[in-house]
What we know:
By secondary structure, this protein is mainly α.
Amino acid sequence: MKIIIIVAGFCFLTIHGNAQTKQLDSLKNLLTNTSKPVERFNILRNILELNLSYKGDNVDSAFCIELLQIAQQQKNDSLLAISYNWVGAYFAFTTGDNRSALENFFKAIPLAEKAKDKRRISSLYFDIALTYISLENFEESYKNTIKGGEYLPDKSSPMYNFMLIQYQRNLAFYYLSTKHLDSALKYIQAADQTNQQINSTLYRYTGLRANAAVYVLAGDNEMAELYFKRTAALTDSIKMGSAKFIFYDSYIPFLLGGKKITEAKEKTIQLIKLGDESGNNLVKRAAAGYMRQIYDTLHIADSAYYYSRKESVLKDSIFSQDNINKIQALAFNEQLRNMEEDAKQAEAKHQRKQNIQFAVIAFGIITFIVLFLLFSRSIVANEKWISFFGILGLLIVFEFINLLIHPWLSSFTHDSPVLMLLALVTIASLLIPLHHRLEKWIKDKIVEKNKAIRLAAAKKTVEQLEGDKIKIN
């Protein structure tokens, strides 16, 4: 059985019913009345998110294009990552063009990483995982789901539950696909619990279908039919064709297995209409395959042959060797990029560790010299040298602190040059007064020590002169 779950990883707003419609109307009014690029970007994104998460609408290609245009004009990595995520979602979940979807998802990942947007990174990996489920490459789906789970937002984030449910639902459908029912049921139940926090009709719909699939695989047809009927009751409220597909793609085989040919044909006709409306080849291919099975069962050879040929052509367009090679190349290039990025981070970490060691050594040497000059009983210290070593020590301490806190500072400021400069200036403003006080104390001590050395030398000279007079007399 093919398990295809189409859930996109986008923001979720906890509103319901009429409030949802009012929110959409309000956003559309705002969109009409604003020309500011970033404001339009945020409004467009919120409309897409509301349409997807509650209405289950298809992704609007015109909105995706405008998002990308604004992001390119602003030259903003975070906005570009969001835009490519939506463009990829359009290809994956509306048209069924998996190769174009993966191209855009993989293009977005380094941009999201540069922006340090954990939520966007997790969203991209979850969407890549869903695309691989459509391609029936379940191991790649699992790898990307786990990778996305590593970037879940903090639990305090309002997006945490929405991203968590995608992680749970992806694993549920992976285990369904590989027929590990206990694990599948565990994650389906976990996702249902998470959905109690976010109240998404779309996730409830896919959750009911997942429960039905579990009972089908477990051989409990009575419970499976119950859950299929509950899913069917929600189908009309879902507008997104790819979301409806997950229901038909499970329910029609169930009906065929139960010899309910008339009902199976009725649902397949609905699936054909869905495929024609969306232009999604995955939907068309599945519908052709089911219609072939129906006419085979009815012993209508001509019709069965027609749909068999149609299914074969659509399968070739989706799973052609050329298409598979290009998809594998995309995945391989992403793997190489990750390896190169890991190597760069390891080298940067090693270099930073060495720099910290060098700073400690340099500071230790300067401290030793200053202390030697300060406590030496025979050397008259020059205050200019003390000032020189003091400034050098200040610079080394500042650099040491910078090296030590740089990773945290970079993450906190999102590599913003202005914010990082302000943070470093603040640190310097704290160090400089401390340096002046320390330098003054050392100079005072040096003056006292120099006076003591000179006084001792003068006494010794006087004693020697007096001794020489005594010898002469």
